Amino acid sequence: MNAASVLRRVTARFDPGWLLALLVTGYVILATDTWHVPTPDGPLLVPLWEALVGFTCVLWLAVRRGITPVAYIAIAAIWGILLTDSTNFTSQALRDLHIYLKAGQHFIDGQAVYLTEPLRARPGDLSNYPFLYPPLTLPAFALLSPFPWPLVDAAWLAASTAIAVWSLRRFGLSWRWTLAALLWPPFMQGLYVGNVMVPLVALFAAAPFARRAAGLAVAPVFKIYSAITTLWLIREGRLLELAVGGAFVVFVALATLPMVGVGLWSDWLKGLGLYRESQPVLPNSLYGIGLPHYAPEWLWLLVATVVVVLALMARGREGLTRLGLATVIASPSLYAHGFVVATPAYLSLRSVWLWTAIAITGVAPGLGWWLAIALLIASWYVPALRRSSTREELHPLADVLEPWPEVVEEAARAKAARRVGTQPGLEPTSGAGQESEAAG
Fold first, then answer.
1. 199 near 221, Cβ under 8 Å?
2. What is the pTM of this model?
3. Which residues contact 20 (CB under 8 A, 6 or more apart)?
4. What is the per-residue pLDDT across 8-38, written as a single tens digit (0 to 9) for each?
5. Cis peptide preceding 280, ω within 30 of 0
6. What torsion do the CA atoms of 207, 211, 216, 222 make, to the nearest 10 degrees?
């Protein structure tokens, strides 16, 4: 057998996925070459990650008698996630929740709630970062702030975790994968700091279901850029739900106006301006990994606009999935927890690409995370990147092809009910049939 035939045989058996696995390995090493776990005085993340990945691969080979690129990338991603998560626990817990509670306390005491001058330095107590939500939210936080904060912390964390679990289940994950997904830095960081983004993901997860999309119009109260997802309601002709959500926000704003007054609304707008003025001074803290940290504002706005327009070309669940990703891109301040609404976009990827995207966003938040965003956008136009079979190895959706599988089941039930109700000579036998038809 000559060398050429040997090379052809080896090439025929070589899985090109290993090239991707090599790139993922290189990315993790480069992205975390200066990271220590769990504290800056601890061991370097990279040698520790390499050792744990290598040991796990050896065990995998011993049990499975072989390893695929998908399995290797998944192992690499999981160890990167666990080591990155360990660094969270040495930072200030529930700091975002405490920002909200302090705002409520300041409101009760008649103190300034919003920024009165630009930030010039990172506060030692991270719960002293500015409160950015509009005045209509203050009465709710004012109700919470007088209670013992450890009690509020526990209740908030429990409620946020339950809501995250509910949302992940709606996206189509099994209980096992749901619990694993909570370790992914976007969810883990959001839960650890107590950010409102984790509870808000439930409004996004509920949107495709019949008569449950009004929450999309409520989310922008807390995250203004979430208004992008309300375009889906217009695209789908669900204007009643848009009106209901909008009316609810207006009602709350008017109901709380006698408590907060017009002055606080003016202070809020001034505070937002001062925050924008502060961002170039403290880019790492106030931009996070948002695109304005790395690119001129005009370019960020152009990219965000183009992505929104492209996202609107799709309909149904796919359109909502794309707009969820668009909100990540349009965020002027982006942190790991901002990626939770991109979960369905991740789940739409083929297994090897899904785990690649998870590996990228499993370690060292930074500019490199935009590689995952680029991959997700590319999947809109490259079928090879997208999930097309339920037989993929280690895909969290398992035997479900697309996110939001219960929406398909709901539509099927409604269609069956309509079919029964419209057959000649037949009438719906109960009010349940009529309710199913309305749900469609």
1. no
2. 0.91
3. 69, 73, 352, 356
4. 554 446 688 999 999 999 999 999 999 999 9
5. no
6. -110
Residue 438: which pLDDT band, with cuts at 50, 70 and 90? very low
What 3-state class would DSSP assign to 95?
Answer: helix
Element (H, E) at 311: helix 297-311
Contacts of 409 (CB under 8 A, 6+ apart): none
- Angstrom distance (rounded) from CA 113 to CA 101: 11
Averaged pLDDT, 217-244: 96
Task: Mention every residue, 6+ apart, whose C-beta is less than 8 A from residue 372.
Answer: 357, 360, 361
pLDDT score of 184 more than 60: yes
Length of the chain: 440
Q: Which amino acid is at 350?
A: R
Q: Helix, strand or coil for residue 114?
A: coil
- Residue 375 CA neighbour count, 13 Å, CB half: 26
- pLDDT tens-place string over residues 250-289: 999 999 999 999 999 999 999 999 999 999 999 999 999 9
Positive/negative CA dihedral, 393, 397, 400, 401: negative
Q: Residue 304's pLDDT band (boundaries 50, 70, 90)? A: very high
Measured distance CA(400)–CA(172) in Å, rounded:
7
Burial classification of residue 41, based on how many CB atoms lie within 10 Å of its CB (0-12 exposed, 13-18 middle, 19 or more buried): exposed
Tell me if 137 sits within 8 A of 193, measured CB to CB: no
Q: How many helices (H) and strands (E) does the chain have?
A: 20, 0
